[in-house]
Amino acid sequence: MDFPIEPVRGRFPALSLADKGRRRIYLDNPAGTQVPQAVADAVSRCLLTTNANLGGYFETTIAAQAVVDEAHQAMADFLGAESTEEIIIGANMTTLTYHMSRTLGRTLKPGDEIILTRMDHEGNVSPWLQLAEDLGLVVRWLPFDEKSWQVEEAVLAALLTEKTRLVALNYASNLTGSINRVKALTAIARNAGALVYVDAVQFAPHGLIDVRDLGCDFLICSAYKFFGPHMGILWGRRGIIDGLKPYKCRCSSNGLPERFELGTPQIELMAGLTAAVDYFSELGAAAGEGGSRRQKIAKAFEVSIAYENPLAQRLIDGLSDISGLTIHGITDPKRVAERVPTVSFTVDGIVPETIVRQMNAENIFLWSGHNYAWEIVHQLGIPAEQGVVRIGIAHYNTAAEIDETLESVHRVIAMLRQQRS
Fold first, then answer.
1. What is the pLDDT of the chain when averaged over all its residues?
2. Do 222 and 232 touch, CB atoms closer than 8 A?
3. How many C-beta atoms lie closer than 10 Å to residue 326's C-beta?
4. Class of domain 40-276
5. For the stretch 344-376, what's the b/e string if a residue is b when 16 or more beta carbons lie within 10 angstroms of its beta carbon?
6. CA-CA distance, 370 to 392, in Å (whole number)?
7. pLDDT one-digit tens code per residue, 398-412
8. pLDDT tens, 6-59?
9. In angstroms, rounded to a whole number, what is the distance separating the alpha carbons of residues 2 and 182?
């Protein structure tokens, strides 16, 4: 079927906004997507009709508990989890990772080893680096291959030792867009006795996640990257998290997942989270899937991937025509399925921010900088204070928007070069 782009765009009010008569093109999606009307409605409805703390016996507190329970079930369906008890919802990915790293730190001792990648977002690096500093752990660095743009299995296998306790991986890069072979990497790490913690923040908007199939022990993502509110969601394997003792208040629940969810939950945002998952389910239903919510979500990703990948290649091909421009990531059309539609580039002699400022002035929204891909820019020798130009596609973008963006990139670079000459 053809992707229903106009009905999809019609569900996102922000896409119809204009500034002084000028349309907006949202290509800042790796930093956060727009939301469907249903997500905003769910947040508002929760605040207006079910606004209470949990644990009481009156109507609003009972309704609030139902909102919390529904959000955990929605994310269990979204991630393919076995149980809602494996779903931990919190403020954001970085906060949850810091919390879990400290909890896991109670099981570690000086001299234990952890492996971090040069490919990950800083939110899955700094928590472990600082834990290592606190506890006297040994950090081993796993680089990515600059030809494949992925973490290679053989390189990981060579780093593992009998002292390796944890491997922190990312599913997809927020700078290069490359997708790692997480299932294969996880199998190697777990066969060596290490736990595996997967950052799926950049993959979650663009592909179906199946935590049981991946075989990892933890996986984390952010709702605001897949059309939801600002929240982080951590899946933890029941057999692992059941034995962990998190930092928590003495009198708070010891149940799962409550003992990992500190303080009063963001109940209204959980309502929005369920609505975001249901958006995928409804997209799958519109594509002809009549099964479970999980099956509808899978169908939604099937049709959205088929729509996004040609847009990504259209962007890559158009950028590749510019002399002196380097795309940092996979460009081979035969490998487009091995990346998400996030494309970063630099141009010889031009600071990325100068390109982005000009394009932002044309209401084309995109980012420059290192984008917290701190290790990537250092491995590639890109000045961290400059970084890259990053363009990120979501399935509500159109071919016309990509063409207009490419025209802008060509024109802005030509103008900046003329100013330099």
1. 98
2. yes
3. 17
4. alpha beta
5. bbbbeebbbbbbbebbeebebbbbbbbbbbbbb
6. 14
7. 999 999 999 999 999
8. 999 999 999 999 999 999 999 999 999 999 999 999 999 999 999 999 999 999
9. 30
Question: CB-based contacts of 158: which residues, under 8 Å, 6+ apart?
Answer: none
Nearest to 269 by CA among 84, 44, 15: 44
pLDDT at 421: 79
CATH hierarchy code of domain 5-35+302-419: 3.90.1150.10
As a whole number of angstroms, the distance between CA 51 and CA 62 comes to: 10
What's at 317, amino acid-wise? D
Q: Helical H runs in 192-261?
A: 211-214, 238-241
- Going by C-beta distance under 8 Å and a sequence separation of 6 or more, which residues neighbour residue 207? 172, 179, 301, 305, 340
Find the angle CA(347)-CA(397)-CA(331) to the nearest 5 degrees. 40
pTM: 0.98
pLDDT tens across 311-339, in order? Answer: 999 999 999 999 999 999 999 999 999 99
Q: SS3 of 54, please? A: coil
Spell out the domain ranges in the chain: 5-35+302-419, 40-276
CA trace torsion 232, 238, 239, 243 (10° rounding): 70
